[in-house]
Amino acid sequence: MRQPLRYPWLNLDVDDQSTPVIVVRVDADGTQAEVPDHRHRKGQLVFSLGGSVTCRVPGGLWMVPPHCGVWIPGGMAHSNLATANARLFFVYIEADLVVLPDRCCTISISPLLRELIVELSDLTQHDDGREARLISVFLGELPRMPVQQLHLPLSAEPRLKRIAAALVKNPADRRTLAEWASHVALSESSLARLVVKETGLTFGRWRQQLHLIVAIRELASGASVQRVSADLGYESVTAFITMFKKALGKPPARYLNSVVQKT
């Protein structure tokens, strides 16, 4: 059962605050938790110190594994779904203070940025000079962070929305392209062209990307490779590990460890 994320404050409108950067620590509180669709003028960096978060925006799903963040430009509608063990920070930034993409992206977070985010969230004494110095370093470092390819493109096309909704709900669904085409009353070739046109990926590559996002989310929450492999409908753990390594260059355990070590 999904619960609302537990905030340390009530009724705070971040757009009413004059502070250029606002950092808020948010806990999932032991259950899968969600922030439903909303928007604000300030841009937002969703940073995961533990567990993981999936951000949904118009046109895509974005994955936030441990020690990474997702940048959401100001004014963009979005929702956040966190795993039960997630340790999150929401960083709200005035748009004209930093040069970041005008689209969502998943970025690595360096040890320096991580400590700045934690420190800014823990400030208890009002020290304008120190806060300003920390914010200045943070804004200077953030645009330098490398981008990770943990994005699932989504389409507003009604037939593809039906397929996407079904696969997001049940990633283990192994219906073939031909079977999905029949399900949405298209020929197999027509559906294949439509998927490429709307997402830029073949159907097989698109479904694989969904599997990678789900796999990283579940592995980061503590699930075993065996369980994740079964939940995604793979015939064997070896087949799952082979897919993961081919796509991301490392088997699951090494990939997650490398994300933590690099950041």
TrEMBL record:
Pfam families: AraC_binding (PF02311), HTH_18 (PF12833). Residues 161-258 form the HTH araC/xylS-type domain. Keywords: DNA-binding, Transcription, Transcription regulation. Coiled coil: none annotated. PANTHER family: HTH-TYPE TRANSCRIPTIONAL REGULATOR NIMR. This is Helix-turn-helix transcriptional regulator.
